[in-house]
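Ticket reopened. Same input as before:
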Amino acid sequence: MGDVKLRRYRAPHWDEPLIMEMGVPGERGMLVPQAGPEVECVVGGDAVAFVPESMRRTTPPALPELSQHQVLRHYLRLSQETLGMDLASDISEGTCTMKYSPKVHEELVRMPRMAELHPRQDDETLQGLFEIMWGLRRVLRGVSGMDEVSFHGGGGAHAVYTNACVVRAYHASRGELPQRNEMITTIFSHPCDAGTPATAGFKVITLMPDEKGYPPLDQLKAAVSERTAGVMMTNPEDTGIYNPNVDKFVEVVHEAGGLAFTDQANANGILGIARARDAGFDACHFNLHKTFSSPHGCEGPAAGMYCCTDQLARFLPRPVLTFDGQTYHLDYDRPDSIGKIRQFFGNVQVVLKAYAWVLQMGPQGLREVAEVSVINNNYLDKKLLEIRGVTKPYEEKRRLDQVRYSLEQLKEETGIGTHEVQDRMVDFGIQSYWMSHHPFIVPEPFTPEPCETYSREDLDYWAAVIEQASDEAYAEPETLLRAPHNSSIAKMKRTEAFEDPDEWAMTWRAYRRKRAARKDAADE
Amino acid sequence: MRPGRRVRERSDDPQMTRAPFIHPYIPNAVPATKQAMLREIGVRDVEELYAPIPERLRFKGELDVPGPILAEADLKRHLRALLDKNLSTDDCLSFLGGGVAKHYVPAAVDEVVNRAEFLSAYCGANYSDHGKYQVRWEFNSQLAELLDVDVVSEPIYDWGTVVGASIRMASRITGRSRALLARSTAPERLAVARTMCQPEQLPTHIGLESVGMDAGGGMDLDDLRRKISAQTAAVYLENPSFLGCIELRVREIAAVCHQAGALLIVGVDPISLGVLAPPGSLGADIVVGDLQSLGVHMSAGGGVSGFIAFNDDPVYCAECPLALYTILETEREGEYAFGEVMAERTSYGLRDKGKDWVGTASGLWTIAAAVYMSLMGPQGFREIGETILKRSHYAAARLREIDGVRLSFGDAFFKEFVVDFNGSGKRVWEVNRALLERRIFGGLDLSQDFPQLGQSALYCVTELHTKADIDRLTAALQEVL
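Engineering reply: fixed in the latest deploy. New output:
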C-alpha cells in the first residue's frame, strides 16, 4: 500500500446558517396558481369562508421567507456538505451494498408515464408498469427459486415484517397461532429480524455464535419446540460468514412445525451462486436498493421484495399482481391475505430501477456481480489483515461479500478504538465506516463491503486509509483523537443533547425556547 | 466465470447481444485485473473463495433472467416503450385522490432531490454527511411550524404505517389496548394499522373500533362518548377526512379523549395547513400524515412518506419508534451539528426489545418536503390553500348542477369531496369507464369501502385543475349520465 497517494481532501465548509434564520418577510420562493376571476365569480373571493371559523388558521406558520435562488443555493450548499456515494467511496458502509446506481435509471423514473401515475388508476392504464413489475417478478423467482413475489415492502425491514405477518397468518390458518409464539433468529442477523417479529407479536429467541462464527446446530435444536413459529435468519451473516449448516437449520425448524425465512438484504455475493429455495427456505427477501442498484436516497425510498413458496402465497399483502397471459391485474380478492402492510402496492419507481439494472446484467452478469464482489472482498481482506491492530474474529476465515473486523488490538495497544478511526476516515474523502449493528459482539468493530462497483485502486485506497489511521494510532494518537480535521463541521460538543431532554431540541422552535431558558438561567 | 466467457446467447430478442463485453459497472471484470487480484489473494479461481458454501447448496443451472441489454441507448428505448403503454395523469385529466394526489412539484425541488450527493447518500455519519443531517432537521423544524408541535420524527413508509405506529405508541404510553378510529378513516390506512395492531388471538393485540360518522362527515360525538372507556388508548381522526370533510369539533373530541385519559391522534394532509387550523393548536397529542403533497411526484404510490409528530415530552420521545434528531453545537463558535436522540431505544439499539422497528424508508422525500416548505413560505401555503378551496368548491358547484348528481356532504371540505351518483341510475365504475374513454380519470369509487354511500366517488381537485379542466369534466359527465 506504500504507493497509494492519500488525497488531501477538504470537505466543503459553507458555514451555512439554518434556513429558519434566513430570509426577509415578504420574499417569495414560489408563486402558486390563483383561482381566477371566473371561478371567484361562482364561489366568491373569500376562500376561507368555506372553512368554519373554529377551524381556520389564525396565525401563519413561522416558515422562512426567501426568494427562489436563496432557497436553491442553501440546499445546494447542504448537498455539497454531504459526501454521498457518487462522489466518494462507500466501501465503508458494509451491510448496505453501496453499489453504483446508473444515472439512466433516474431519467426513466422521471418520465411522466412513471412519475405522474396515480396508484388507483384503472389497471388498463398501468399495463406498462405492471409488465415491468412482472419482469422483476421473473428475475426474483429466478434468483431465489421461490414462486411468488410481493412488491409492497417499502424497505428491507418492511419485507422482513411482511414475513412475520405471513408466518402469523399461516399458523393462525392452522389454528396454532397463540401456541406458536416464538420466533428464532441469530444475533448476527439484522436487528429487524428480531424487531419486526416482536412487533408482530412474537417472543424472540436469539441464537449466539460459537467459535466458528455461527450458532451450532445443537443450540437451535434446544431452542425449537411446539411453540416455534419459525426462524428468521441472515446467511451469510453480518460478519460475512456463511453458515454451511443452513439447510439443516431449516430442517430442524420444519420438523418442529415452523417456517423458515432468510433475510437476503445482503445477497450480492450469492446471486446465481446459491438460492434460498434450494436450502429449503419457505421465504426470503431482497433489498432492491442494495443488491439491485437503486440509490439509497438518504435512507429511502427503498424497496424490500418478499418472495415465498406457493404454500404461503395466499397470505401475501393485497393486492397481488396477476397476469392472465394478455393483461395484468391487481388482485384484491385475497381472503386469506394478511391485509395490508402499506398503502397502494409498493415503491414501484424503485422496481423500475432494479429491473433496468438486471436487464443490463443478464443472468451471467448477475453471477459476475457476485463473483467480483467476493473477489473484491477477499482482496481487501488480504490488505487489511496486513495492517497493525486489525484482526478478524472467528475460526471461519473465508468470508463472502463483507467482513466484520475488530480494532480491539489497536485499542489495547494505543488507546485508539473504532470510533476515533471512524471519524478520521472523513479526512481522506471517504465515508466514515459502518461499525456494526448492536450489540457490538465483535469488540471495536468495523464492516466494509467492497461490492463490484469498486476498482482495485479504490480497494487499495480504502486499505491505505485504515493503514494511515493505524500508523497514527501508534505514532501520534492525538491526530485521531481530534479528528476529523477536514470535515464540513468541527468536532461536536454538548453531546449530552442526545440523551438529555433539557438539552435536546428536535426543531427550531424547541431550540429557541431551550436556548432562551439556558440564557435566563445563566443570567440568574 | 472464466475470462472471455461473458457471452449470453439469446435468439428470441434482437436487443440482446452475443458479443463478449466488460461491464461498465464492474471495473474489476477486466480479466487481467481479476487474475492479478486472485493471485494476490492466493487462490487459483473464484471457486475457491466460494468454498464455504457446501456443494449441495450451490445453484448449478442458468438463472431464468432476461437480458443483457448492453447499450444504454437500447435499454432506454426498451423501457421507454414499456412505459409508453401507461397512461399518466399528464395524458389524461385526473380527479383521483384518496391518499395520493397530483400537486405541482417545483422545478427547484426536483433539482435538489436529484443532486447526486443526496440521491446516493445513505446512513453516513454526522461528519461525512453533515448537510443531509441539517436538511433533515430543517425539515423537522418547518413541518413543526405547519403542525404547531415541537417534535417531528424521521418519516417512514407511509401514512398508514404511522397510524398503526402511533396507536401502538399511545398504547405503550397509556398502558391501554383499545383504539377508536373515525368511520371515515382511509380504508387503506386502516388496513395497514389493523395489521400492525395484531390479530385478536394474540395477548398483545390492540382492538380497533370505529366511531360513527355524523351527517356532515365528521365524527359522531355521541357515539364517541358511548364507546370511549378506561381501556381506550387513543382516538384517531383525519382532518380533512379521507372523504374531504373538515372536522369541525376537534377541540371537543380532544376534551372527550383527555377526560377519559386517552390520547388524540390527528392525521393531516400538510398542504391544507396554510388555511386550516394546525392540529397542535386543537389539542392533538400525536399528529401523523403524509409528505406526498409537499413536492413529491406520485409515482403510482411510490411518493408516499409518513411522519409522526408530538410535543416535547420525554415519554413520547422514548416511545416513538422512529428516529429523532437534535441540534447541538460544535467546537467552532456559532456552528451547529445534528445527531440522533436516544438511538438506543430503537430496534437498531435493542433489537426485539426496541420500540417496534425502524428501517430504510423514505428519507429523500424529507428533502423534497424541506425544499418545498422553504419555497412556499407562509404566504405560499396560504395561497395554495385558498386556490384549492376555491377550485374544489367551483368543481362541486358545477357537478351538483348535473341531473342525478348530488354532493354527499356539506360545503366544509378541502381538496376532496364525495359525489353521489345514486340518483343517476349509473354505477361509478360505469361512469368512470365512460370518462376514461374521454381521457378523464374519474373520482375514486367508494362503493366497496363505504357501502352506506351507495354509488359515490371521491373527487380530488388541486391547484393544478383549471376552470377549463373542471368545465371539461362537467361536460363529460353531462354526456355520460
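Residues 348-384 of chain A form the longest helix (37 residues). Residues 151 and 246 of chain A are 26 Å apart (CA to CA). Please confirm and we'll close it.
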